[in-house]
Amino acid sequence: MASDASTLFARQHCRRGFTPIFATLIAVVLSSAVAAIPLQIPGNFDPVFTKTSNLALGNGTAQAHATALQTDGKIVLVGQCANGANFDFCLARLLTDGTLDPAFTGPGAAAAGSFMLPTGGAAGDSGANAITLQPDGKIIVAGGCFNGGANYDFCIARLHPNGSRDASFVGPGGTGNGFFPLSIGASSDFANAVALQSDGKIVLAGQCAGVTNTDFCVARLNSDGTFDASFVGPNGNGNGKFFLPIGPKEDGAHAIALQPDGKIVLAGTCTNSTDVEEFCVARLYADGSLDIGFDGPGVAGNGKFTFAVGGVSDEARSLLLQPDGNIVIGGACAAPSVDFCAARLLGGSGAFDTSFVGPAGTGNGKFSFPVGVNIDIAQSAALQADGKMLLAGKCVVNGFNYFCLARLNGDGSLDTTFDGPSGAGNGKVFLSIGSSNDVATSVAIQSDGKIVVAGYCSNSGVDKFCIARLSGGPYGNKNCSMDIDGDGKVLATTDAVLLARVALGVTGNAVMAGALGVGATRTTWTGIRDYLVSQCGMNLAP
Question: How many CA atoms within 13 Å lie on the side-chain side of 142?
Answer without folding.
Answer: 29
